[in-house]
Design brief:
54% of the residues lie in helices and 13% in strands. With 373 residues, the chain is of the alpha+beta class. The longest helix is centred in the middle third of the chain and has 31 residues.
């Protein structure tokens, strides 16, 4: 597979290995895996990034190099990297502040096997009892004829270039967002077009979640509700939407929570209907509103989910129970409709400000720049 970042990988390998670089790439599953995972490098901030699995490789290879095993060998005698050390290092990397341990523990290995089922090796070796980790050195030592090449330093260089490219793209995204905020009074239509571009099917899932939250927050805030614990304590309140944490977090299937109604929202882009039922199960069949990154009509999406339930469970009563748990489906067209309502209430600038705020929080942007200053 060739894409825009493949040229960067090729150039780095040439710098290290010269005429042997092409054959090294061909013989290395790890390099081919990185080539696949860096496909989003030059597609801008709105394309999906793959930091978790890439960083799992990075921190283990970095540990390998720091201990100079690439020069002196004897890696088989190494007691392994401490989980606490490599986990802390992962969170020091750009965009890594809130990454969990899933990639280190199983996701990287699972995905690697999916792409290279014939490969005899998995990238991460670990002993759960001692919480010690190793990179599989077999994937770092590439044989060509009678010569063995160690690609560890090239791996680090490739990932550093990917980080630099993605960080540059995100910097431009923040810069563009800030620029639109300065012209909001003169060119409100441009702001709306910019926001609409962030909820298209091709955008990064994290950006979509942030933007959909920002739009819905300022849509619901205009909605009033009257409630109280007794007839003489009825009071007026507006609907408030809250994010529960970072995107892609292990939060039990709750991305947004609404007060005072207690509605749960889950953002998804998957076409695997089992994921919907898993989210419903995790919430013990509490009603969920699904915000789906799809341009498909809502009735088609609901029919698709229902068909999946029928195929999976085949019992009408069970299917009905799951379908009743889908409180509402919000697709891209619905978000566009909601954005129109937000615009009517002169809240476009608030949506843009919320997008900037949530994006900086999500990508640890402000913390990093405060440290630099």
């Amino acid at each position: 597979m060739k894409h825009s970042f493949t040229g960067t990988i090729t150039n780095i390998l040439k710098n290290y290995f010269g005429d042997n670089s092409a054959q090294i790439f061909k013989n290395s599953e790890l390099l081919q895996y990185l080539n696949f995972k860096t496909i989003s490098a030059n597609k801008g901030s709105k394309s999906r990034s793959s930091f978790a699995n890439i960083y799992a490789i990075y921190i283990l290879v970095e540990d390998y190099i720091d201990k100079e095993f690439h020069k002196r060998g004897d890696y088989s005698k190494y007691e392994g990297a401490k989980f606490s050390d490599i986990f802390e290092r992962q969170r020091e990397l750009p965009f890594g502040a809130k990454l969990q341990n899933h990639a280190l523990n199983h996701r990287l290995n699972q995905e690697f096997i999916k792409y290279f089922p014939a490969c005899d090796y998995i990238p991460v070796i670990r002993v759960a009892e001692t919480k010690r980790y190793w990179i599989n050195e077999n994937l770092l030592l590439i044989k060509i004829n009678k010569t063995t090449f160690n690609i560890s330093e090239a791996i680090i260089n490739i990932i550093n270039e990917y980080i630099k490219t993605k960080k540059s793209a995100f910097d431009k995204f923040i810069e563009t967002s800030e620029k639109f905020r300065t012209i909001e009074k003169e060119k409100p239509l441009k702001i709306k077009e910019f926001i609409l571009s962030l909820i298209e099917p091709h955008v990064d899932a994290r950006i979509f979640e942030i933007v959909s939250f920002s739009i819905l927050k300022f849509y619901y805030i205009e909605k009033n509700i009257y409630w109280g614990f007794s007839p003489d304590t009825i009071e007026q309140d507006n609907l408030k939407l809250f994010k529960t944490g970072r995107t892609n977090a292990n939060d039990g299937g709750i991305d947004f929570v609404m007060k005072p109604l207690g509605r749960f929202f889950q953002v998804t882009e998957t076409t695997d209907v089992k994921k919907y039922f898993l989210d419903i199960d995790k919430l013990e069949k509490f009603p969920v509103t699904f915000v789906i990154k799809s341009a498909e009509p809502i009735h088609k999406l609901k029919k698709y989910i229902e068909q999946g339930a029928i195929e999976q469970y085949r019992i009408d009563e069970v299917v009905k129970k799951y379908m009743d748990c889908i409180e509402e489906i919000i697709n891209i067209d619905r978000l566009k409709f909601v954005l129109n309502k937000v615009e009517e209430n002169n809240n476009l600038s608030n949506v843009l400000s919320e997008i900037i705020l949530q994006s900086k929080v999500e990508f640890n942007y402000e913390d990093e720049y405060e440290d630099d200053e």
